[in-house]
Amino acid sequence: MIRQQSYGALGVKAAMLVVAAVLLFAPFLFQDVRSVEVAARVCIFIVLVASYDLLIGYTGIVSFAHTMFFGFGSYGAAIALRQMGPGWDAVALGTVAGVGVSLVVAAAIGLVSLRVKAIFFAMITLATASVVLVLASQLSQLTGGEDGLTYSVPALFKPATRLWLGADGKVAEFMGLRMTGKVAAYYFVFTVSFLLFVIMLRITQSPLGTVLKAIRENEIRAEAIGYRVVAYRTFVFCLSATVASLAGSVYAVWLKYTGPETALSFDIMIDILLMVVIGGMGTMWGAVVGAVLLVVAQYYLRDLMSVAAESVSMVPFLPDLLNPDRWLFWLGLIFVLLVYFFPKGIVGTLMQKGART
Question: 3-state DSSP call for residue 193?
């Protein structure tokens, strides 16, 4: 059984290495702007989904405020860069401010609300996130309102920055890729995302991760054997909020724009939930699978459907059914099929079946 379980785990880890390699060399493999944007978004959402999985998958906490903490980090960096200018001091101060606000709000919500039943806690987080979204839209002098904020980033990350000059004084190329600030910005996103994911992975494999699973499985029993359940739940809620806030600050630096739709929208929360379910709750590797599949589908499913519609243009009904404007219908259908055939998420189901064979 141990050997069979290890085969399943090794297969998942091998797939994760492939994903990590593709993301690491994304600027070299995909040199168009759109593909690099997709790779950066995948990196950010892997961190977001993994941090949310600490709550819902490992501890059994259902929260609808995860996007709020992501927004605190984004707006913290954006406001600092807008007010102080494109310096590293602004990035650092904005990031610390975003994390600080996230910690205060998370601790307040956790200490006051984590004693109540799960559904009531979920409603409290939803109400809090809705209030923050309204405030971000109305405090236009600070947040830019519905229009959001645009700002400059440190010179290292500006597309015009030349990281490496050739003998002729022009921007040098490495493996066909021009060494500009856009490359530096991507590797900033990748490096921070990778480090945050590794930290969360280590936490889940530590004794703390075991305690969180015990609380998820039987809160009363965990309390009975001496664990302070509310303290642990509050701690992991604050930890998850901190990671989400850091991810928001990194995304703000990458995007050079922050607004309600990119940082606080409830659509982002829905995406996070879908990614957790698709990848598998309680598996850090599931965050990688879910983020990759959903982000890639959001960007490329419409293009794929356009090609498919053209290829069957002579067949009745099919071109209309495969119309790119119907991509959300097909995305929903794919999600339903994934949930049906992988009830514990792709990673969870594959590892379970690998253990039984």
Answer: helix
